[in-house]
């Protein structure tokens, strides 16, 4: 009996030591979890989550400081994916952080723009081109629709326009389910 | 909006099921005329029970009745069960068996197309485990007159030993336990015909005929029947050649019990079976092997039902590993 | 030469319905009242408009310049006046609009000057550019630019000319081969020369004996290495990959081009267009289209590209109970969303559908895993597995089961006894996967740009700090030099503050002296506008107001 106990304890110690060593020896550089979370976030970089960009929010989720339902651009699908990744329960988007909107891009009214460069400084992805006192414009394919440029504009010439469906982005809808019976 | 293709072959689930029912008719005729006419009554009982059971569950599940009832899949299950059960099984046992198949196996798993197990075979196994004696009373062909058969089906006295004998498979199995008995000596005395049970053996070609009809109609493919019968013949031949005194001939095995019914009607159930061509071969051959082992060495006289269930479990595994080569892909299989 | 035929697995045999429209010769459609020529020739390619409203154009005049690698030129289909350039629906399942040039024909149908191209005096590249300039694309439906397909042409052994036309109802290729076999073969010989193929195989389904006879007669004088091969009638034998398989035994996997396997395939209509482009220098401005189905006068018509379907239909006379129109064949076609859609290069057939001819499918039942679909699938897929995964939106699994090998031929849905619209699920799943791919790319790009911006801001801050420090050191040195040792202690401690103060003083001086330069010499309304904006700005930012000049 005693020998059995001793042997078991011995095995436990040896295995524990091996595991401990392995966890140090094979420690992965960086924090893959943050990367994985960041990969799910939409990269709109809008800050609506309360963090200065998607990566900081990812960091905060992984540290357990932030909840998973704070990113409005990611929407329900994003929350679902985060819930899947982290093995948590799905919860609806938190209202204080905003609501899910159709994807839009910023457009500068070029007649009104005074060339103040304030929007350039606000844009997190450098999607606005222009120079001081020159007309500015948004490079639509690069714009993430974060709306950060809207507020700083002194002459209110930036508006958000929803992206229209084109032949290139059109897709087939989910077939209407006419399953009249499952018997 | 309806999208292409705008034309469809006039195929329907109902059509498929109707073809299966049609294919069973030759066997039913042989059964009724050569063995026991009461099978027609059993078929009717089973059909009514199946439709009633299906209607009931659909009602409870809040689904529309008409499409499901008219697809005839419940009737196919009912007929297969009625043909598998002994003809003199009391009516309530037939009803119970059918309800197990329809309610528990088909609908609890989500209805048509969703059940991982063959409903008829689950019901058959459940019944044989629950009512072993009732399920092993088989009259010899033409032994009982129609009134007696009816009396047995609808209650009344059951003088079991007096009326019932066992199936050919059972007779051989129990007979071999006696010292010095050989297959030949047993077959020489009892109710045996040319290769198997007298009268019963004629069912086999009738089922095969129906099976050929299904093959011709393209309802089933050749893979499953061929693999099943081939494997059964091969393994029984191997044992028979090694020891003809204690193992029955391949012909006996092919003509006895549920072999032919199984090969063309049960193993080929699409819903619970393997779907890839190679998968079908593996699936059916494995059923034959397991069935032979149960027949020859197991506690039950017939093994097809158990073998089918056992292999039903393996279907996802079989399918996954036998995906056919996709057009244009070399060697690498779809997975 | 006897060609050994191969076969592909699966396939179905729908009723062919070819006789309705194949009996009468190709008729020339009258000049339409209006032509609508989309600048987007396919989903992937657009063209830049070269004309302006009011401009007069001649037939065959270059009115749109193809953009990007897949772009091809766009031409006016007849002579007339450009009336507007406006969005108009295009022939696509979405029914979405695209920018189009609207031309009002002048009735003269006058050609622009065009000259043939002498293939022997130009390089291969020039010849391909010529085809691009003539707007030649595949005319079997997909509309893939021919010069791109010819582009990789090295080591090609076999040129396949596709005259199979396996879809029911369509007969435009059949008529074309019967009536213009020499032209089609001349185009085939040009294509062959351009890719350097050793042999030419023309595959025609054996339900078109007249076309086979006409083509064989035309081919007899052209040498041994061109042969017209009847292939068994089995849908989809006219699918490019299937036809190549039947004629040569080569299987081309998804995502690969025939060139990698020494085979290339062109439609007979394309061959005819190539013939006209090279031998006459004519750009592609018309095509043969089958009008059939529930119509009084089914047949084939040679139609100017850009003719609106509504005008075309008058030729055939749809019957009263026609409820919709199908573009393409019934197996792979799409429903027409609007009758103002113009005829495009890839439009081979319009079928008037009535409930009697194309009854709506009975209700869908659950899949019974019968495997009928798998037996019919020419791509050797397991359609019910794909269906299951697509329906559950399990796209990863669907891709693992080779969703993208599906050619959307519709055989599986055609045979399914449960009448499941299988192909709809595949289209949906493919669309979702592509959309996700696009989103992922966009978000990766955004992440990169965001990270770069952060990095840049960081760097700028550092550079600024470094500059500041250098300047401060300089100032201090200067101060020390000029002997002003009595500088306030605070300034030496905080060089930044000193700089800021100096800059502020300078700015004040300047502000007083300078007025904005770029407002000089502007027109009165611009001045007014600027004043306007400044007023708004003042209202918005009162604290700025005093600074504004
Ligand atoms: S809310 Fe904005 S910044 Fe925050 S994670 Fe979502 S997209 Fe990124
Ligand atoms: S342009 Fe405006 S809305 Fe678009 S990414 Fe930049 S700041 Fe955001
Ligand atoms: S044909 Fe239809 S019912 Fe049969 S397996 Fe395919 S999808 Fe399922
Ligand atoms: S549509 Fe796709 S899955 Fe269906 S038969 Fe054609 S290739 Fe196969």
Automatic annotation (TrEMBL), chain A:
<feature type="binding site">
    <location>
        <position position="143"/>
    </location>
    <ligand>
        <name>[4Fe-4S] cluster 3</name>
    </ligand>
</feature>
<feature type="binding site">
    <location>
        <position position="123"/>
    </location>
    <ligand>
        <name>[4Fe-4S] cluster 3</name>
    </ligand>
</feature>
<feature type="binding site">
    <location>
        <position position="71"/>
    </location>
    <ligand>
        <name>[4Fe-4S] cluster 1</name>
    </ligand>
</feature>
<feature type="domain" description="4Fe-4S">
    <location>
        <begin position="29"/>
        <end position="88"/>
    </location>
</feature>
<protein>
    <recommendedName>
        <fullName>Ion-translocating oxidoreductase complex subunit B</fullName>
        <ecNumber>7.-.-.-</ecNumber>
    </recommendedName>
</protein>
<feature type="binding site">
    <location>
        <position position="46"/>
    </location>
    <ligand>
        <name>[4Fe-4S] cluster 1</name>
    </ligand>
</feature>
<keyword id="KW-0004">4Fe-4S</keyword>
<keyword id="KW-0813">Transport</keyword>
<keyword id="KW-0479">Metal-binding</keyword>
<dbReference type="Pfam" id="PF04060">
    <property type="entry name" value="FeS"/>
</dbReference>
<keyword id="KW-1003">Cell membrane</keyword>
<feature type="binding site">
    <location>
        <position position="113"/>
    </location>
    <ligand>
        <name>[4Fe-4S] cluster 2</name>
    </ligand>
</feature>
<dbReference type="InterPro" id="IPR016463">
    <property type="entry name" value="RnfB/RsxB_Proteobac"/>
</dbReference>
<feature type="domain" description="4Fe-4S ferredoxin-type">
    <location>
        <begin position="135"/>
        <end position="163"/>
    </location>
</feature>
<keyword id="KW-1278">Translocase</keyword>
TrEMBL record, chain B:
<keyword id="KW-1133">Transmembrane helix</keyword>
<dbReference type="InterPro" id="IPR011303">
    <property type="entry name" value="RnfD_bac"/>
</dbReference>
<comment type="similarity">
    <text>Belongs to the NqrB/RnfD family.</text>
</comment>
<feature type="transmembrane region" description="Helical">
    <location>
        <begin position="279"/>
        <end position="297"/>
    </location>
</feature>
<keyword id="KW-0812">Transmembrane</keyword>
<keyword id="KW-0813">Transport</keyword>
<keyword id="KW-0249">Electron transport</keyword>
<comment type="function">
    <text>Part of a membrane-bound complex that couples electron transfer with translocation of ions across the membrane.</text>
</comment>
<keyword id="KW-1278">Translocase</keyword>
<comment type="subunit">
    <text>The complex is composed of six subunits: RnfA, RnfB, RnfC, RnfD, RnfE and RnfG.</text>
</comment>
<keyword id="KW-0472">Membrane</keyword>
<feature type="transmembrane region" description="Helical">
    <location>
        <begin position="12"/>
        <end position="32"/>
    </location>
</feature>
<feature type="transmembrane region" description="Helical">
    <location>
        <begin position="89"/>
        <end position="109"/>
    </location>
</feature>
<feature type="transmembrane region" description="Helical">
    <location>
        <begin position="247"/>
        <end position="267"/>
    </location>
</feature>
<feature type="transmembrane region" description="Helical">
    <location>
        <begin position="38"/>
        <end position="58"/>
    </location>
</feature>
TrEMBL record, chain C:
<feature type="binding site">
    <location>
        <position position="370"/>
    </location>
    <ligand>
        <name>[4Fe-4S] cluster 1</name>
    </ligand>
</feature>
<keyword id="KW-1003">Cell membrane</keyword>
<keyword id="KW-0472">Membrane</keyword>
<feature type="binding site">
    <location>
        <position position="406"/>
    </location>
    <ligand>
        <name>[4Fe-4S] cluster 2</name>
    </ligand>
</feature>
<dbReference type="InterPro" id="IPR019554">
    <property type="entry name" value="Soluble_ligand-bd"/>
</dbReference>
<keyword id="KW-0249">Electron transport</keyword>
<dbReference type="InterPro" id="IPR037225">
    <property type="entry name" value="Nuo51_FMN-bd_sf"/>
</dbReference>
<keyword id="KW-0004">4Fe-4S</keyword>
<dbReference type="InterPro" id="IPR017896">
    <property type="entry name" value="4Fe4S_Fe-S-bd"/>
</dbReference>
<feature type="domain" description="4Fe-4S ferredoxin-type">
    <location>
        <begin position="357"/>
        <end position="387"/>
    </location>
</feature>
<keyword id="KW-0997">Cell inner membrane</keyword>
<feature type="binding site">
    <location>
        <position position="416"/>
    </location>
    <ligand>
        <name>[4Fe-4S] cluster 1</name>
    </ligand>
</feature>
<feature type="region of interest" description="Disordered">
    <location>
        <begin position="9"/>
        <end position="29"/>
    </location>
</feature>
<dbReference type="Pfam" id="PF10531">
    <property type="entry name" value="SLBB"/>
</dbReference>
<feature type="binding site">
    <location>
        <position position="412"/>
    </location>
    <ligand>
        <name>[4Fe-4S] cluster 2</name>
    </ligand>
</feature>
């Amino acid at each position: 009996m005693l020998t059995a106990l001793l042997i078991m304890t011995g095995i436990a110690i040896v295995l524990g030591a091996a595991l401990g060593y392995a966890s140090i020896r094979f420690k992965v550089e960086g924090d893959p979890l943050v990367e994985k979370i960041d990969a799910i976030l939409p990269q709109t970089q809008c800050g609506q989550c309360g963090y200065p960009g998607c990566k900081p929010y990812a960091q905060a989720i992984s540290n357990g400081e932030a909840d998973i339902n704070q990113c409005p651009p990611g929407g329900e699908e994003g929350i679902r994916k985060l819930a899947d990744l982290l093995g948590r329960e799905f919860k609806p988007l938190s209202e204080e952080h905003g609501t899910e909107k159709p994807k839009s891009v910023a457009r500068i009214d070029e007649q009104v723009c005074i060339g103040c460069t304030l929007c350039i400084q606000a844009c997190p992805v450098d999607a606005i081109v222009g120079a001081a006192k020159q007309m500015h414009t948004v490079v639509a394919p690069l714009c993430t629709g974060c709306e950060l440029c809207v507020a700083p504009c002194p002459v209110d010439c930036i508006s958000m326009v929803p992206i229209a469906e084109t032949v290139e982005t059109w897709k087939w809808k989910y077939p209407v389910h006419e399953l009249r019976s499952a018997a | 909006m309806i999208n292409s293709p705008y034309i469809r072959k006039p195929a329907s689930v109902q059509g498929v099921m109707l073809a299966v029912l049609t294919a069973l008719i030759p066997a039913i005729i042989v059964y009724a005329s050569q063995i026991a006419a009461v099978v027609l009554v059993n078929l009717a009982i089973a059909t009514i029970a199946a439709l009633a059971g299906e209607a009931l569950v659909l009602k409870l599940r809040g689904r529309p009745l008409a499409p499901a009832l008219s697809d005839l899949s419940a009737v196919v299950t009912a007929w297969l069960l009625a043909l598998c059960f002994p003809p003199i099984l009391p009516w309530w046992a037939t009803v119970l068996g059918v309800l197990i198949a329809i309610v528990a196996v088909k609908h609890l798993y989500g209805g048509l197309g969703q059940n991982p197990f063959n409903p008829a075979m689950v019901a058959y196994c459940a019944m044989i485990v629950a009512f072993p004696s009732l399920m092993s009373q088989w009259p010899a062909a033409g032994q009982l007159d129609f009134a007696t058969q009816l009396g047995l089906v609808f209650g009344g006295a059951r003088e079991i030993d007096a009326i019932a004998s066992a199936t050919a498979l059972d007779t051989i199995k129990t007979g071999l336990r006696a010292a010095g008995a050989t297959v030949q000596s047993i077959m020489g005395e009892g109710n045996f015909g040319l290769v198997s049970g007298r009268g019963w053996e004629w069912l086999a070609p009738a089922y095969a005929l129906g099976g050929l009809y299904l093959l011709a109609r393209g309802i089933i493919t050749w893979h499953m029947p061929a693999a099943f019968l081939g494997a059964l013949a091969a393994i029984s031949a191997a044992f028979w050649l090694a020891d003809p005194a204690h193992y029955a001939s391949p012909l006996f095995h092919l003509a006895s019990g549920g072999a032919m019914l199984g090969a063309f009607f049960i193993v080929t159930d699409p819903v619970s079976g393997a779907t890839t061509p190679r998968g079908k071969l593996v699936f059916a051959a494995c059923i034959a092997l397991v069935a032979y082992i149960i027949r020859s060495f197991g506690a039950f006289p017939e093994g097809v039902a158990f073998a089918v269930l056992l292999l039903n479990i393996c279907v996802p595994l079989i399918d996954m590993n036998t995906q056919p080569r996709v057009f244009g892909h070399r060697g690498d299989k779809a997975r | 030469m006897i060609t050994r035929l191969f076969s592909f697995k699966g396939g179905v045999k729908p009723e062919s319905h070819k006789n309705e429209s194949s009996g009468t010769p190709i008729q020339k459609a009258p000049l339409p009242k209006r032509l609508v020529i989309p600048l987007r020739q396919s989903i992937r390619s657009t063209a830049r408009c070269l004309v302006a409203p009011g401009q007069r154009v001649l037939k065959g005049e270059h009115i749109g310049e193809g953009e990007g690698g897949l772009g091809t030129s766009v031409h006016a289909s007849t002579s007339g006046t450009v009336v507007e350039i406006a969005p108009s629906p295009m022939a696509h399942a979405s029914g979405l609009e695209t920018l189009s040039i609207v031309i009002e024909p002048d009735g003269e149908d006058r050609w622009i000057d065009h000259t043939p191209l002498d293939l022997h005096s130009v390089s291969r590249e020039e010849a391909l550019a010529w085809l691009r300039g003539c707007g030649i694309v595949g005319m079997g439906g997909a509309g893939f630019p021919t010069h791109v397909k010819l582009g990789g042409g090295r080591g090609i052994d076999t040129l396949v000319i596709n005259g199979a036309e396996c879809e029911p109802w369509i007969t435009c290729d059949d008529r074309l081969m019967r009536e213009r076999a020499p032209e089609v073969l001349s185009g085939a010989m040009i294509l062959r020369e351009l890719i350097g193929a050793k042999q030419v195989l023309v595959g025609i389904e054996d339900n078109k004996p007249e076309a086979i006879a006409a083509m064989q007669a035309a081919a007899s004088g052209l040498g041994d290495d061109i042969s017209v091969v009847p292939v068994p009638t089995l849908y989809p034998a006219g699918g490019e990959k299937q036809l190549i398989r039947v004629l040569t035994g080569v299987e081309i996997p998804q995502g690969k081009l025939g060139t990698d396997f020494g085979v290339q395939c062109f439609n007979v209509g394309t061959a005819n267009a190539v013939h006209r482009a090279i031998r006459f220098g004519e750009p592609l401005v018309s095509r043969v289209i089958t009008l059939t189905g529930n119509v009084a006068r089914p047949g084939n018509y040679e139609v100017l590209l850009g003719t609106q379907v509504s005008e075309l239909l008058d030729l055939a006379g749809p019957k009263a109970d026609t409820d919709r129109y199908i573009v393409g064949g019934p197996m792979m076609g799409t429903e027409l969303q609007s009758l103002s859609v113009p005829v495009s290069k890839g439009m081979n057939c319009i079928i008037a559908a009535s409930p009697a001819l194309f009854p709506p499918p009975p209700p869908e039942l659950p899949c019974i895993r019968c495997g009928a679909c798998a037996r019919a699938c020419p791509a050797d897929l397991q359609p019910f597995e794909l269906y299951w995964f697509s329906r559950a939106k399990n796209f990863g699994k669907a891709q693992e089961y080779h969703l993208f090998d599906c050619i959307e031929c519709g055989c599986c849905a055609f045979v399914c006894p449960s009448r499941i619209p299988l192909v709809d699920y595949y289209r949906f799943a493919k669309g979702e996967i592509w959309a996700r791919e696009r989103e992922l790319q966009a978000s990766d790009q955004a992440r990169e740009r965001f990270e770069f911006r952060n990095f840049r801001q960081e760097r700028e801050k550092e550079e600024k700090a470094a500059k500041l420090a250098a300047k401060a050191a300089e100032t201090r040195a200067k101060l020390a030099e000029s002997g002003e040792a009595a500088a306030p202690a605070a300034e030496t401690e905080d060089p930044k503050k000193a700089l800021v103060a100096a800059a502020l003083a300078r700015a004040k001086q300047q502000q007083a002296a300078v007025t904005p330069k770029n407002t000089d010499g502007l027109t009165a309304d611009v001045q007014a506008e600027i004043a306007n904006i400044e007023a708004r700005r003042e209202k918005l930012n009162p604290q700025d107001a005093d600074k504004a000049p």
